[in-house]
Amino acid sequence: MPWFVWLLAAAALGAAEFFTLTLVLGLLAGAALAAAVVAGVGVGLFGQLIALGAAAAAGLVIVRPIALRHMAQQPVTREGSDALIGKRAEVMQEVTATRGLIKLSGEEWSARALDESLVIPTGALVEVMEIEGATAIVYPRELLP
């Protein structure tokens, strides 16, 4: 009946992973499953612990870094307002720290300056640094590094 104990341990670790999202407990749950399979075949406790350790080490040393690297990558395409960040726009009404209007991708957007001390005149070209709601936060292109 040791395989059942390992199966319960795997289920408990899997449930804990669901709440923590660390990827560590999920890999340990997979290792417990490996130990359950080994126990089901009839291998003794020492062999089960070896299977648990080997599967846990393989998961934590090989699988976890690869998974974390893939999770850290930015999406290939940006959608919605995120796609507007980095775009060039033209100032339609003077942009200050509190108000302004720009033409961005063929549409008029409310805007404000990233640097609160700047006043960006009409006709100037700006770059969208971020989007907050329906307001574009902009910075003059000639001041960019």
Describe this structure as you would to a colleague:
- This protein has 145 residues and is of the alpha+beta class.
- The protein has 2 domains: 2-72; 80-143, Nucleic acid-binding proteins (OB fold (Dihydrolipoamide Acetyltransferase, E2P), Beta Barrel).
- It is 45% helix and 21% strand.
- It is built from 3 helices and 5 strands, in the order H-H-H-E-E-E-E-E.
- The protein has helices at 2-20, 24-41, 45-72, and strands spanning 88-93, 101-104, 107-113, 125-132, 135-140.
- The protein has a 5-stranded mixed β-barrel.
- Strand 2 (101-104) and strand 3 form a beta hairpin.
- It is rod-shaped.
- The protein starts with a helix and ends in a 5-residue tail after the last strand.
- Pfam families: NfeD.
- Keywords: Membrane, Transmembrane, Transmembrane helix.
- This is NfeD family protein.
Summarize the structure.
The chain is of the alpha+beta class and 145 residues long. The protein has helices at 2-20, 24-41, 45-72; strands spanning 88-93, 101-104, 107-113, 125-132, 135-140.
Q: SS-based structural class?
A: alpha+beta
Side-by-side strand order of the widest sheet = 1-2-3-5-4
End-to-end separation in angstroms reads 67 Å
User: How would you sum up the global shape?
Assistant: rod-shaped
| Number of structurally distinct domains | 2
Q: What's the tally of helices?
A: 3
Total strands: the figure is 5
Tell me the strand percentage band: 15-25%
**Overall pLDDT:** 91
What is the alpha-carbon Rg in Å? 27 Å
Quaternary class: single chain
- Share of helical residues: 40-55%
Unreliable stretches (pLDDT < 50, length at least 5) are none
Main beta sheet, described?
5 strands, mixed, barrel
Please provide the ordered H/E string of secondary-structure elements. Answer: HHHEEEEE
